[in-house]
């Protein structure tokens, strides 16, 4: 894994990317990100939009915003703090990431506790309480895993070995116990319950929300976009205009009321004739989003008010800080508009 390189910048980037994202998905983003921003200075100097664009597709965009803020703070500090407390005081760095950087990059004898380490601890100590309620108990158990002299003398190697153990042997299903170095001391294996642990509280059914987004394009292939607020879900990214997502579906009358320029009846401009051209489904961690994509073409885009957005050439959309969700919406809108116009 990229974090095996004991460079604090590399460890930091890889650990932030791996939050809520699989290793397979992260690897190409990691290499592209480091090629684009090879060090703290390059990341701190880059415009936030460029960082968000490089992050597009990974989701959880607050991570990218915090990376940028943290890089600026690291420039002010003159580099990374070398202790857990100092690292955890930085923007976007929590207890786990601070411990990972401290152990892997600086050789501090601490145990970074992620999902893999929680699973290892649940099995070694036979913790039967379900997650997430057992998280504090598992963390308290996990910090004792490095009590041996080898782990204390080689904190970086131990931390990475622990991650590898959870990723390759002590896996969620069918753990390879016969190959595990802790098989003799594993309490769950002695009880024959290793495959059952850690136990989890059943998840509630993921709710559904509904959205509407509008692709308005003129005859010169200029389309209207806007920036989401800096805080919150997909904060700071670029999107097609549309109302706030909600828990009920949108009626045709409601769509007409919230469409861009619907209040410009007095303008000497052609009012956009909106047509639904497709639907986009996107799954977030806590809800599923169903979006109706509407599209319209006009001779010339009306001059938008600040809150309505700004025009951008279609050929430049790919370089904007669009989320993967909004890329799907733009593609659906453009393809649907081509079919409708032709």
TrEMBL record:
Q: Which CDD domains match?
A: ENDO3c, NUDIX_DNA_Glycosylase_C-MutY
Highest taxon of the lineage = Bacteria
Cited PROSITE patterns: ENDONUCLEASE_III_1, ENDONUCLEASE_III_2
- The answer, when asked if DNA repair is one of the entry's keywords, is yes
| Segments crossing the lipid bilayer | none
Q: Which InterPro entries match?
A: DNA_glycosylase, Endonuclease-III-like_CS2, Endouclease-III_FeS-bd_BS, HhH-GPD_domain, HhH_base_excis_C, HhH_motif, MIG/MutY, MutY_C
**According to the UniProt entry, what is the EC number of this protein?**
3.2.2.31
Q: What is the originating organism of this protein?
A: Acetobacter aceti
**Protein family according to the UniProt entry:** Belongs to the Nth/MutY family.
What is the recorded name of this protein?
Answer: Adenine DNA glycosylase
Any one Gene Ontology BP term: mismatch repair
Q: What does this protein do?
A: Adenine glycosylase active on G-A mispairs. MutY also corrects error-prone DNA synthesis past GO lesions which are due to the oxidatively damaged form of guanine: 7,8-dihydro-8-oxoguanine (8-oxo-dGTP).
Q: Does the keyword NADP apply?
A: no
Names of required cofactors:
[4Fe-4S] cluster
**A Pfam family matched in the record:** NUDIX_4
Q: List the catalytic activities from the record.
A: Hydrolyzes free adenine bases from 7,8-dihydro-8-oxoguanine:adenine mismatched double-stranded DNA, leaving an apurinic site
